[in-house]
Amino acid sequence: MSSSINKEQLARIRQGKGFIAALDQSGGSTPKALRLYGIEESEYAGDEQMFDLIHAMRTRMIKSPAFDGRRILGAILFEGTMDRDIDGIGAADFLWSRKRVVPILKVDKGLADESNGVQMMKPIPDLDALLARGVTKGIFGTKMRSVIKDANPAGIKAVVAQQFEVGRQILRAGLVPIIEPEVDINSPTKAQAEALLRTEILTELNKLAEGEEVMLKLTLPDTDNFYAGFVAHPRAVRVVALSGGYSREESDARLSRNNGVIASFSRALTEGLSAKQSESDFNKLLDHTIEGIYRASIT
What we know:
single chain; 299 residues; TIM Barrel
């Protein structure tokens, strides 16, 4: 691994008990996230106010007594959160210094139009500059998402090749990439797509040199322990699962049957939280949610 990678953080992600909180909704998904949090679009005007509100929501979660390194290993932030402060401290620094939660940055710029049954990542201009800024702010790793909608061999091969190509660029910057080729849970060929994906990822993992290590973020598979080979792979720091639209209850149940895989839930983590809740009710529900996800992650 690069000498610039924080060894304590790496050990925590690799060996720690817990899960990764995904707090990385960005421009396109922010109105939906706020609506689920009880804030309608009529209650704010323009992007600036919208991002102030989502930052307030994330800050409320991060500062909650329920949210700390006892059960949460890392948190994925989007760029706007990384550039903001919590209690006068940079968000990434706050996570690590106050909560012992490893900070991770979403770096993709969204999805291209569907082709060959997949959505590749859009180009990521100025990625090197963003990665350098992340390093200075204390970021440990990155996350980037593609989506697979159909068991198309050419499409899946292209998605995985793109993910690992950008992953190598991230490794050169001294950060650990999370490779995230999501399989749409509503795909009529989900199981077949997962089989193709597993083969392509294994091929790319085996090409990595010693010291080049990545994390994998994958849809909860139709077959339990389908990704056990990745959990044991020397080039995979950790295998994490996305909730992908499953309810929190369903996500936790599926996750608990996949040994060694930990959660990296977004919507399932915030399910039921509301801006209108008292601090007591908010913290109580968040604690209950975190406990459930934690229990499912340590099987």
